Amino acid sequence: MAESAASGHSKSSPLKLYFGVWAxxxxxxxxxxxVAYLELGPxxxxxxxxxxxxxxxxxxxxxxxxWHASEKLTKLVIVAALFxxxxxxxxxxxxYATRTWS
Amino acid sequence: MGMPTVVPQxxxxxxxxxxKEYGIWSWLLTTDHKRIALLYLISITFxxxxxxxxxxxxxxxxxxxxxxxxxxxTYNKLFTQHGMVMVFFFxxxxxxxxxxxxxxxxxxxxxxxxxxxxxxxxxYLYIIGGIIMLHCMLTGGVDTGWTxxxxxxxxxxxxxxxxxxxxxxxxxxxxILTGLNFVVTIHRMRAPGMTWSRLxxxxxxHYATSIIQLLGTPVxxxxxxxxxxxxxxxxxxxxxxxxxxxVLFQHLFWFYSHPAVYxxxxxxxxxVTEIIPCFSRKRIFGYQxxxxxxxxxxxxxxxxxxxxxxxxxxxxxxxxVFSFLSYAVALPSxxxxxxxxxxxxxxxxxxxxxxxxxxxxxxxxxxxxxxxxFLAALGINVHVTDTYFVVAHFHYIMVGGAVMGYLGGMHFxxxxxxxxxxxxxxxxxxxxxxxxxxxxxxxxxxVLGYLGMPRxxxxxxxxxEFQVLNVLSTAGATVLGVGYLLPMVYFLWSMxxxxxxxxxxxNAAGLEWKTASPPPTFNFDEExxxxxxxxxxDELDAPPQAQEVTVA
Amino acid sequence: MPESTLxxxxxxxxxxxxxxxxxxxxxxxRNSASLGMWVFLGTEIMFFGGMFCAYxxxxxxxxxxxxxxxxxxxxxxxxxxTAVLICSSLTVVLAVWAAxxxxxxxxxxxxxxxxxxxxxxxxxxxxEYYDKFEEHHVPGASFSFNNVPIPSHPGEYANxxxxxxFFSLYFMMTGIHALHMIIGLGIFSCLLYMACKGHFTPExxxxxxxxxxxxHFVDIIWIYLFPLLYLIDRHP
Lengths: 102, 552, 236
Ligand code: HEM
Ligand SMILES: [Cu+2]
Known about the structure:
- Chain A has helices at 15-35, 43-63, 72-98.
- The longest helix of chain A has 27 residues, at 72-98.
- Chain A folds into two domains: 1-69; 71-102.
- Chain A is mostly helical.
- Chain A has three helices and no strands.
- Chain B has one domain (30-551): Cytochrome C Oxidase, Chain A.
- Helix content of chain B is 66%, strand content 0%.
- In chain B, helix 3 (72-108) crosses helix 8 and helix 10 packs antiparallel against helix 11 (353-376).
- The model of chain B is unreliable at 1-7 (pLDDT under 50).
- By secondary structure, chain C is mainly alpha-helical.
- Chain C has a single domain (33-230), classed as Four Helix Bundle (Hemerythrin (Met), subunit A) (Up-down Bundle), CATH 1.20.120.
- Mean pLDDT of chain C is 90; it is low at 1-9.
- Classes of the chains: A mainly alpha, B mainly alpha, C mainly alpha.
- Chains A and C meet through helix 1, helix 2 and helix 3 of A and helix 2, helix 4 and helix 7 of C.
- The complex binds protoporphyrin IX containing FE and copper (II) ion.
- The site of copper (II) ion has 4 residues of chain B, from helix 8.
């Protein structure tokens, strides 16, 4: 589906891509909504977050043009911000997870 | 082609950023980064003296063991306001928003920052935050300490925390916008030939600072919002009554506030890295190491925050790891110290005022950093946490390091900023007074803390043996105050009566010295093209100056 | 553009009326603006990150209570809102495309539709808040959450105090998200105005692009808020 450049430099129209991503996002929303009602034990959260991450990635890659039209620096900014977010979550969580060890 | 070596006498007719337009609106609506730098300079100086005023009252109170000058809750407000003003309204904007604003575009060879209007907006946000802070202080103030720990700030204090929170929040955004402008400018606006490895290390330091501002500040911003909503709207996020965890607040707060100490010190490191090669007439030793250690500090700085929470109830395993990581973060700082020292080695050193401040920085920052390592050791920390040892530690870095760097930088670039020379003799005297006053103020506090005097007490009459050291400290603070007033006086004096400065009075390397003093509105008469490495003092000194026409 | 007339390359200026004086060429200006927006979005990640961090810790601590509290929110409204935002992201990307390809009418209508979606989102959100208010689920003095069973733990009831933490986070996270939506509406009003004035050309439409980036980002935040606040422990 990723046949065209979204940057406007390319001749072919990216509309098919946009509508495709849009439809995928809607389907994923429906799926995550329905799956939430199934009993999957701890995997409910996992599935929900995985689907959310797929959706977020789709939006970033195709709607925000990270895939086609952006340079490395953009990707670096995204990765850096996510890295520091993970640091915040991870190191804080590490404290809570180990408080009861002894 | 080539930068003219201008004869000083003709200078007064030349159009500069200072004389291009007159009138209050030409300043308040300017988008010229140099003018905005001056707006910031005036505003942070104002807040510096406000913060200093509180400091003076604190020191006066501690002159005697009894709590006789002010009451307990007034004292709490004094140190809170002192901390908030000094951290959020002086130190964080200090070097980046003044010298950084002025120099970053010039050093990379640009006409302005990438977003001049956002730059102006950042100053206005700072001013709005500052006015709210002033209003808060004038109508009662806050007593939470600059760290505004919950649940005291959210549920118990009867002072105006929400207002102070809003002030800090807004000032935080001004800091974010400055950082954003720097990052984009450094990436996008470099002159032809200004590769990353040719950037002055001042730029690297500001780049690293901006990373912290961008990634840390939002976290403290949202934390303030959470606490303020908890207080004003009775939400319960950290509230122990509901099962919330106040330690979580501390995690979020220090996630910003430890890196924030590097927002304060990295730019000063950048300043010192410009001064030392110039006054030793040598290339900086180990350019890559100094550059990358700035980035390393910015990144590692995010890994150590819980060393402020060792006794707050975090898990012992977590404490172990954070203690270890705190030692790791000292490495890049140590690398810098070694490189500065190595640069001095066999240099032809000149003891002008900027260099005196740089020396002061070196010594005081080293002491401050080493005492940080003491504090980061779990065993010692339990004993000296919340004592004057901590106070001494961070003042050695923030006042001894950051403010020294700031003053050094002000002296170094004052000829460029104002086009005038400051009186060198007075400046050296002031540097000396600051250094002596500083040590007299804060060294006794190491001893006091080690002996067990807690911080944030207004009355120590049950331990009168601490008075001697406290008197020394108060005396030192007076000296220090004089030391700080002096530069302000002679800088102002020199604007009118100072000798005109040549374009490059220090014969320094760096693009900012290749344009006129003071610079024209768009910094360079012709777009510079860089063909040399940074700190090429060997080349600068080799041929006679007149042949030095490498620009464009 | 107040400063564009001050000085600079007059030739460039005539060729590119939108070029600000301190940039060398339009390319540099566009790249700077887009990098600036991306960096800003990076800070936004950290801004929301503080709340995600608090959520993570408390969800870990008060697992069942959070489940029970989450279940009291109308997931269908949440899902609808997710769909609304996804549609608005589509219209945003179409608006950008319209600007790139000089379709001014399409650009204007896409901007309008995006804003309508945004308003719809806020309306649905308002309905949700109203429900919570009616049910006394707004933290504070009148909060009540008694005898609510914990999902998949028969016979156990949620601790109202812990549920209050959930709702505090719920209101903060969705509230700040909604605030971003409102700011987004403001940005899009400006874009609409500029589009109507005919400011945008295939060569110059950076504002649409970076405004769109902002909108998509707010959408992404919602994509995470939706499962975290609405979908945990839905199952019987
Ligand atoms: C060499 C790296 C450093 C280490 C290992 C270090 C370590 C520490 C530790 C462990 C504490 C906590 C003391 C306690 O409350 O028990 C502390 C406090 C503090 N440090 Fe540092 N530090 C370092 C560098 C800096 C720098 C560069 C600055 C400022 C520019 C700074 C500013 C502060 C401040 C403001 C506090 C006190 C916060 C408060 O409780 O109010 N530190 N430091
Ligand atoms: Cu620290």
